[in-house]
Design goal:
This protein is an alpha+beta fold. 14% of the residues lie in helices and 33% in strands.
């Protein structure tokens, strides 16, 4: 699964990468800011492509924000979103919660990389210690995760023209991990390669087989993984230090005993 990731790119970098016109960036994108510990229910940045209302045969690409945890349009309330943070590639085109979004509401969720937890042989109180790893593009580029988005109508808000009347949410598509990453976790997010951005985002294309063919696991060597501090395990922690590799001695800074404080001088 993909349950935590880092997103710190400047919006201008995303505008350039995904070829978005400056006027199609929502103000909320700037408000999200850097987040090195993105978790479900957070507002996240997404690239979406919508039909042009004035010319339905044309589309408009936008950089916007959505809440992580998909709420289908037919849901009675938003609680279902807590369980729909990931969608499996193997069943996404058939499951009722994802089928409609897969056909017409696909997105890209830009990231620096994502976190996974490896169950180590070390045990504490009889339970295996989980070591977090950060997995990112080896070339330092943007990780374009394949996602779906939905728009849910909040009927407690009477005015349908109000932004508060509509909740935008998303989920991350996952697949079986490649051999070089499978040792850490058996699932990984699906990536959209640059030459496939247009086809994946295009809402006018709803052919299931064509869409599934666009999605492939990362090629061997495309991603690199390294151990990071267990500080990322708490959503209360944030900052660039979370993606720093463990020091050469392999000791997590969280596990190091505090140095004794100097006694006060009188």
């Amino acid at each position: 699964m993909c349950g935590r990731y880092a997103s710190s790119r400047d919006p201008s970098d995303l505008v350039a990468e995904f070829e978005i016109e400056a006027g199609n960036v929502r103000e909320s994108v700037q408000e999200v800011g850097e987040n090195f510990n993105v978790a479900p229910t957070n507002q996240v940045i997404a690239v979406v492509e919508r039909k042009n209302r004035e010319a339905p045969e044309e589309t408009v690409r936008k950089l916007t924000t959505v809440k992580w945890g998909l709420v289908p349009s037919w849901a009675k309330d938003t609680s279902i979103g807590n369980r729909l943070i990931n969608a499996r590639m193997e069943t996404v085109a058939e499951k009722p919660a994802f089928k409609k979004a897969f056909a017409t509401r696909r997105c890209i969720l830009p990231a620096d990389g994502y976190y996974e937890w490896y169950k180590s042989e070390q045990k504490v109180n009889g339970k295996p210690v989980k070591q977090p790893y950060f997995i990112r593009p080896a070339d330092g580029g943007i990780l374009a995760m394949a996602g779906l988005y939905e728009i849910w109508r909040d009927k407690t808000v009477e005015d349908p023209d109000s932004d508060e009347a509509w909740l935008w949410t998303c989920t991350v598509l996952t697949t079986s991990s490649t051999d070089d990453l499978g040792r850490i976790h058996d699932r990984m997010p699906l990536l959209v390669e640059r030459e496939r951005y247009d086809a994946w985002l295009n809402p006018l294309n709803s052919d299931k087989d064509d869409l599934l063919d666009l999605l492939v696991p990362a090629a061997p060597g495309r991603l690199e993984a390294y151990a990071v501090s267990k500080a990322v395990s708490s959503v209360k922690n944030n900052g660039p230090h979370l993606v720093d590799p463990l020091p050469p001695d392999g000791i997590d800074p969280l596990d190091k005993p505090e140095e004794p404080k100097e006694p006060p001088l009188f």
